[in-house]
Amino acid sequence: MITTADQALLRRAIGLATRAVTLGDAPFGSLLAGPDGTVLAEDHNTVRRDNDITAHPELKLARWAARELDPATAARTTMYTSCQPCGMCAGALVRSGLGRVVYALATEQLVELHPAAGDWPVVAQDGPDLFEEARAPIDAYYA
User: Fold this and answer.
1) For residue range 53-68, what is the model confidence (pLDDT) as tens digits?
2) One of 42, 58, 132, 133 is an active-site residue; which one?
3) What is the enclosing helix (H) or strand (E) of 39?
4) Is 58 a residue of the active site?
5) Is the peptide bond before 128 cis (omega within 30 degrees of 0)?
6) Among 113, 117, 67, which residue's Cα sits nearest to residue 92?
7) Contact status, residue 38 vs residue 69, Cβ threshold 8 Å
8) Which residue of 45, 78, 88, 136 pairs with 28 in a disulfide if CB–CB is 3.0 to 4.6 A?
9) Sheet containing 39-44: which strands, arranged edge to edge?
10) Confidence of residue 120 (pLDDT cuts 50, 70, 90)
11) Contact 37, 76 (CB under 8 A)
């Protein structure tokens, strides 16, 4: 359930997205709020500026959280983001241990507003293969 306090922080994330556009960056902004609602970190998309396809604010903040927050605090931390995290960012959010994500715009809504946002090709994948060879470094690491 999204509260009025959540909406205030969502508006701040939307403000970060708006600021990103004025700086020539893509229109996405995110922030992390601690258990008491205090903003811990915030960022916006810098994919173009940094020439880095991973420079999404959600991913940058997930890395920050994993590095800077202990697991118990991370689990009580909420990310507020102007748009629903993409698959890359969603995976990082799971690994970061954050407890909650609140977003303003769903992916379907983004694609409806800007169809090219959903125009990603499918990358062919083949496998699995060479199980015994591939398991050796895994077994060695986890031994």
Assistant:
1) 999 999 999 999 999 9
2) 58
3) strand 39-44
4) yes
5) yes
6) 67
7) no
8) 45
9) 39-44, 29-33, 78-83, 100-105
10) confident
11) no
- DSSP one-letter code for 115: G
In this structure, the number of other CB atoms found within 10 A of the CB of residue 21 comes to: 14
Read off the pLDDT of residues 66-79 as tens digits, 9 standing for 90 and up.
Answer: 999 999 999 999 99
**What tokens does 90 get?**
């969603």
Block residue for tokens 């890395």: 63
Query: How far is Cα 45 from Cα 135, in angstroms, rounded to an integer?
Result: 37
SS3 34: coil
CA atoms of 29 and 141, how far apart (whole Å):
37
Secondary structure (3-state) at 43: strand
Q: Enter the pTM of the model.
A: 0.93
Name the amino acid, one letter, at 104: A
